[in-house]
Amino acid sequence: MPDTAPTQATGHVVAVRGGIVDAVFAGHGPEIDDLLYAGDVALQVMTFVEGGAARCIALGGVQGLGLGTPVRASGGPVRVPVGEAVLGRMLDVFGAPIDGLPAPESDARRSIHRAPPPLAARVSRAEVLETGIKAIDLLAPIERGGKTGLFGGAGVGKTVLLSELIHNTVEHHRGVSLFCGIGERSREAEELWREMGDAGVRDKMVMLFGQMNAAPGVRFLVGKAALTMAEWFRDDRSQDVLLLIDNIFRYVQAGSEVSGLMGRMPSRVGYQPTLATELATLQERIASTREGAITSIQAVYVPADDFTDPAAAHIFSHLSASVVLSRKRASEGLYPAVDPLGSTSVMLTPNVVGQRHYDIARAVRRTLAEYEDLRDIIAMLGIEELSAHDRAIVARARRLERFLTQPFTTVAGSTGEGGKLVTLAETLDGCETILNQTEFDRPESDYYMIGSLVDLEGAA
Ligand SMILES: Nc1ncnc2c1ncn2[C@@H]1O[C@H](COP(=O)(O)OP(=O)(O)OP(=O)(O)O)[C@@H](O)[C@H]1O
């Protein structure tokens, strides 16, 4: 149970519809965003309806609530504990423990509804965060202090890629890391918690969860609770924060469920009319200031693989790098299934990554795009009908495709292969070598699931 501020106004329930509860108060009632309690059930005031009733979303199951159940106002919004005390802990939307340990001993609690830093206070550093994952470092470098999205439909490897990124970056990250699970499976949450313990990085990490089985109100607010804790490390401790979110689409979806329950008319493709503002309220808080940077990596579920979906499109517009995962690649076993032509980053300019990296990335893309164009001809006429020049493009492209696959530590248990980290320099050297070759002694399959090209020599 979250703790409560001194009890103020009292009222009673006048309607319960799904996760929505209406309550009336005699005299001065609560305000928007205030936390109320109807019995044990926490509610947040969303709006006021005709007759003056406060319309609230439930932050838990509403079983047991009925007309006339007494409601008391907590005297303020949902507040979460902030500070060092939350490190190493697994918490819920109220900052209450779900790891079986006592509540974090923190003197300070902050409202989860906070304004983003003013524009003048924001900075960008044009610095790249190296991940050790070839396809990402080469084609969609992650901005330190920026926002990166991992886009993909169901089951193409978003969670695996995010876990691998956590594995590769959290250990070397200078500041603290915060993982926020929104609307995903609880089993994955439990696995991640255990993995972080095994990797010995739990003590500089906080994990917050509002998983699929949680009420829509909880899934809608857990991201804000996580941001509030992250902001403390950035603003009060001037630390860099790595914020990992799985899955930001579920935040939009929870907003849509809340909107539906509130009786608002849906907008495009059934989404809430407030989608853009709701998303901006959260994304704008993920900002880097002179105090410290918040680098965020967000998994984005793309419904029905449709990248024009309004939620996916709006999320895309907030990001500085987008890693797009393709179903076609996943079906060919080319993991991580990064789409080399669809993935982008604002970091990929000569000014930031340097001319050589930029040129190699462009050449890789061009080769793969030319191969795409040739695929139809190959399918109809066979590869023999191609000119020697085109055959060389195909040979290079197919080796590049395979070279950009990589064994991951996260799935080592099921693939039987240990994960491999590859430095950016090795990735660039490898791609350059392949791009400069016209004849290859080795079959394509030798390039599959290796680390750097040095592994190839080792296999000779
Ligand atoms: N890098 C990888 N190497 C090997 N297998 C992988 C890799 N990435 C994903 N897979 C396979 O694909 C499966 C689905 O991956 P994952 O759970 O990450 O997908 P997802 O996009 O998060 O799915 P959902 O939308 O259902 O949450 C994994 O269980 C694994 O079998």
TrEMBL record:
The terms under GO molecular function for this entry are: ATP binding; proton-transporting ATP synthase activity, rotational mechanism
Top EC class of this enzyme: translocase
Superkingdom per UniProt:
Bacteria
Positions of ATP binding: 152-159
The record's section on InterPro entries has:
AAA+_ATPase (IPR003593), ATP-synt_VA_C (IPR055190), ATP_synth_F1_bsu (IPR005722), ATPase_a/bsu_AS (IPR020003), ATPase_alpha/beta_chains (IPR050053), ATPase_F1/V1/A1_a/bsu_N_sf (IPR036121), ATPase_F1/V1/A1_a/bsu_nucl-bd (IPR000194), ATPase_F1/V1_b/a_C (IPR024034)
Q: Which PROSITE patterns match?
A: ATPASE_ALPHA_BETA (PS00152)
Can you give the residue ranges of the AAA+ ATPase domain?
A: 144-329
This protein's UniProt keywords: ATP synthesis, ATP-binding, Cell membrane, CF(1), Hydrogen ion transport, Ion transport, Membrane, Nucleotide-binding, Translocase, Transport
Record keyword Nucleus present: no
Reaction equations catalysed:
ATP + H2O + 4 H(+)(in) = ADP + phosphate + 5 H(+)(out)
Topology versus the membrane: Peripheral membrane protein
- List, alphabetically, the SUPFAM superfamilies matched: C-terminal domain of alpha and beta subunits of F1 ATP synthase, N-terminal domain of alpha and beta subunits of F1 ATP synthase, P-loop containing nucleoside triphosphate hydrolases
Q: Which residues cross the membrane?
A: none
Q: Which family, according to UniProt?
A: Belongs to the ATPase alpha/beta chains family.
What is this protein identified as?
A: ATP synthase subunit beta
Recorded source organism is Pelagivirga sediminicola
